[in-house]
Amino acid sequence: MTGAMYPGTFDPITNGHYDLVRRAADIFERVVVAIAANPGKAPLFPLEDRVALAKEVLADISNVEVTGYAGLTVDFARQHGLRVVVRGLRAVSDFEFEFQLATMSRHLTDKVDYVFLTPTEQFNFISSTLVREIASLGGNVRKFVHPSVEAALKQAWEKRKAQKS
Questions:
Q1: Which residues are annotated as a binding site?
Q2: pLDDT tens per residue, range 79-131
Q3: Mode of pairing for the β-strands spanning 84-88 and 3-8
Q4: Annotated binding residues for substrate, as ranges?
Q5: Burial (0-12, 13-18, 19+ Cβ within 10 Å), 134
Q6: Which residue in 14, 58, 84, 107 could disulfide with 4, CB within 3.0 to 4.6 Å?
Q7: pLDDT (tens digit, 9 = 90+) per residue, 143-164?
């Protein structure tokens, strides 16, 4: 069985992520969406919330699993019998960073390969960072995220504003 891993911070999961997962699920028999703890990025949502949101958003794709992880991506992939890491490329700037990651990973193990997918055109400008920024300023993110993510973003920013008061 060919399994793939789609790793990321998913803070939050966007419609662009959903598009890539759905397309990866059409290619691979099993796709594990692996949500990195990544405390160095100071995510808006704790890992448990990011996992819960991703599970809700991706629930309609039967061959997808969602889990959190810490540590090296290639180690997670090997430990779970996943030979492929799927990454999304929105722009040329993404390619340089992703190429470095793939090359470094190849130096760590020859048991995991990287596959790059480009998003459907309507999603190629969406990033979690932009979605968080729009939401933090009270903007409408409805076109970019699932309704449950939209609600979670609104609640998270309201909570932060209340804490600052």
A1: 9-10, 17, 41, 73, 87-90, 98, 123-129
A2: 999 999 999 998 777 888 888 888 898 889 888 999 999 989 899 889 999 99
A3: parallel
A4: 9, 41, 73, 87
A5: middle
A6: 84
A7: 999 999 999 999 999 888 888 7
User: What CATH number has the domain spanning 3-124?
Assistant: 3.40.50.620
Binding-site residue numbers for ATP are: 9-10, 17, 88-90, 98, 123-129
Catalytic residues: 17, 41, 90, 128
DSSP secondary structure code for residue 44 in this structure: S
Q: Are 87 and 114 a contacting pair, CB within 8 Å?
A: yes
2, 28 contact by CB (below 8 A): yes
**What is the DSSP-derived secondary structure letter of residue 33?**
E
